[in-house]
Specification:
- InterPro entries: C-type_lectin-like, C-type_lectin-like/link_sf, C-type_lectin_CS, Ca-Dep_Lectins_ImmuneDev, CTDL_fold.
- Keywords: Coiled coil, Disulfide bond.
- The protein is an alpha+beta fold and about 425 residues long.
- About 70% of the residues lie in helices and about 10% in strands.
- The chain has six helices and eight strands, in the order ααααββαβαβββββ.
- Strands 1, 2, 3, 4, 5, 6, 7 and 8 form an eight-stranded mixed beta sheet that branches.
- β4 and β5 form a beta hairpin.
- α2 packs antiparallel against α3.
- The protein binds calcium ion.
- The site of calcium ion (CA) has 6 residues, from β6.
């Protein structure tokens, strides 16, 4: 590398004693216009970068909000559905417990009624048996008394006939027949009265017996009627309980069916929501990708430290490194050391980067060229040849000074923009280039 001094950079001043020539005025004018255009372009690029950066931030924020809103809506819906399911399940369980309790109570009541009825029937049966037994006994007693009375009557008739014969015989024997007839007549009347009383007593016994039999029959009918009534009541209660159970079962089945329908509806809504959310997110991603593809400057600005300027993405390092480290750090970004293939645009870009970084105007910066593989055969980072006749080489460069200069820097001063070969172990800032 040829090392110029500050003095050699000073252009010899020319003093004009007369009006400057027109060509000089034009040159100055052109120079001023060029400076103005460059400043305007720099300002425009800066503003564009700023707007693109803000746009990116806004898009990120919007996407985050949409994602957050979708997640919150989905979570709320899931929570609501879960709560409703729990409530419905609780109600259903309570209904089943009530149904079970009602069924159990009805069974117990039915069993108690049956037991009570059986006991009552047994008592009625016992009472009926006792009454029948009594009636039979009374009947037998009455029958016996009737037979005795009949025997007594026959005996009396026999005795009476005998006595009448005796009286007639005695009347025939010793007179006084009228008196004896009168006595006999009284005795006959007395006998007739006694027979009348016995007959009345027999009628009364018969009447009582008939009455008892009628009562027994009525009581038997009443017991049977009561039994029929109890059986009818039990049947009614049983039918009512069965109807209640049937109704409860029917209602429960209806509720379960309604719940299943609601669940199905909720499930369908969730699926539709999920589908629409996926479609929306996919559309957002697609739009974002389209925006990114359409604006490489946005992709460039997403890389830390890189700037998009004059259709190129690049970064000037903040630290000085040797060539090997500088090359590795660019490659770690997915980039490479800057290949200075477009002298005019590259000079504008590199001066812009130096100005943005606030660096001094005399500086060496590592770029992509080197002849590490074959001495004096320089190549750019992408492997394309860097001819020794390339117009950006400084005067006498590359000179491989000391036989150790295999890496290339761009040397920038207020009046110079040239390539020099340098020792690779030297430390300089470096320029990375990210291809889009
Ligand atoms: Ca060399």
């Amino acid at each position: 590398m040829y090392l110029p001094t500050r003095r050699t950079l000073v252009t010899t001043a020319v003093s004009w004693t007369a009006e400057p020539p027109t060509s000089v005025v034009l040159t100055k004018g052109i120079e001023n216009m060029r400076n103005t255009t460059t400043d305007a372009r720099v300002q425009l690029e800066t503003e564009t970068n700023h707007k693109l950066w803000n746009f990116q931030l806004q898009m990120d924020s919007n996407v985050s909000k949409v994602m957050e809103s979708c997640n919150v809506s989905q979570q709320q819906l899931l929570t609501t559905v879960s709560d409703k399911l729990l409530q419905l399940e609780t109600k259903l369980n309570k209904g089943l417990v009530d149904l079970h309790n009602a069924s159990f109570t009805a069974d117990r009541r039915l069993e108690a009624n049956i037991n009570e009825s059986v006991e009552h029937l047994q008592k009625v049966q016992l009472q009926l048996d006792a009454n029948i037994s009594k009636a039979v006994q009374s009947y037998n007693e009455l029958n016996e008394r009737l037979m005795e009375t009949s025997k007594e009557l026959q005996l009396n008739q026999t005795t009476f006939s005998y006595q009448v014969e005796n009286i007639v015989t005695r009347l025939d024997k010793d007179g006084g027949i009228e008196l004896k007839l009168t006595r006999a007549s009284d005795q006959v009347k007395d006998l007739q009265q006694r027979m009348q009383k016995i007959s009345e007593a027999a009628d009364e016994h018969q009447s009582q017996l008939n009455k008892q039999i009628t009562e027994l029959e009525a009581e038997g009918k009443t017991g049977l009627s009561g039994l029929q009534q109890i059986t009818s009541d039990l049947r009614t209660t049983l039918t009512s309980n069965v109807q209640t159970l049937t109704n409860l079962t029917s209602k429960t089945e209806l509720r379960v069916s309604e719940l299943e329908k609601k669940l199905s509806t909720i499930d369908n809504r969730l699926k539709r929501l999920e589908t629409s959310t996926k479609i929306s997110l996919e559309a957002i991603r697609s739009n974002m990708s389209a925006i990114f593809r359409a604006t490489p400057g946005v992709q460039c600005l997403l890389k830390t430290g890189y700037v998009w300027y004059l259709e190129t993405c690049f970064k000037l390092s903040t630290r000085e490194e040797n060539y090997t480290t500088a090359k590795a750090k660019c490659e770690a970004d997915g980039a490479h050391l800057y290949d200075v293939k477009s002298p005019i645009l590259d000079e504008e870009r590199i001066r812009f980067a130096i100005k943005q970084a606030g660096l001094p105007l005399y500086i060496n910066i590592w770029v992509g060229g080197n002849d590490l593989e074959v001495e004096s055969v320089h190549r750019w980072s992408d492997g394309t040849p860097l001819s020794p006749l390339y117009k950006l080489w400084g005067g006498g460069e590359p000179d491989n000074l000391g036989g150790v200069q295999d890496c290339v820097v761009i040397n920038v001063t207020p009046v110079q923009f040239v390539l020099l070969d340098e020792r690779c172990s030297a430390s300089y800032r470096y320029l990375c280039q990210y291809d889009l």
